Write the structure tokens for this entry.
Amino acid sequence: MNTKLSLIICTTLLALVSCKHEPKLTLAADSKHKHQWSYSGETSPEHWIEIEKNSDCDGKQQSPINIININADSIPAKGKLDILYTPTTLISKVENNGHSIQFDFESGDSITYKNETFYLKQIHFHEPSEHKINGVIYPIEMHLVHVSKSGSITVLGILGEEGEESQLFEFFESFLPLENGAVKDIHQKIDLSSLFLEEKHYYSYGGSLTTPPCTEGVNWIVFKEPIILSVEEVLKLRNNMPINNYRNEQPLNDRVVKLNY
């Protein structure tokens, strides 16, 4: 009788212990599933390093930064950056990836920088701008992401200022609105030479991607002179992206920003 009673008690205790621990396993799985970066709340840029454990988001060479013109070393830039954009390059598709509006490109446009060729892969937008110049935040910033055959990355950052209508942005926005997660095939020509980047001064520095995994070792070229687009064009892009889809300013640390002319 005592043996039987002991078995019943043990069985009951084991059942209670199992039931007590089961919710904790479920909560842990749910918590892991929720780990996805965003621009607001518990997954905003301030928390990226907490939820992106294997990223560079806590590195010492992060982007974006506040560029102080008076502190930038001025150097001649002749021959350092060649922009090889043609009027026959094709946009392959546009996507609302939940973080920005992104246009992907087929092979065609490229730049040469630091004696290496980088091919234009995609363009996306941030509103307001991520980079600042002398503390000034611009209404929008366009990132042109280029990748070399070795996997190195160079990003052209172009700030946007409100004014007259831009035919280039009218073309981009002709494919909007686009719901979160939606993709549209395009396969149409675009002439980015209308940006006249060869005529602009630019800042350069070593930084990172401004979205997780915040990979460092990225060549940044931020043009000093902004492009002009209308208020309506800024608003149309904003209405298709998360509100304030920008990363906060990162410390410069020991980096040197150069003003190329």
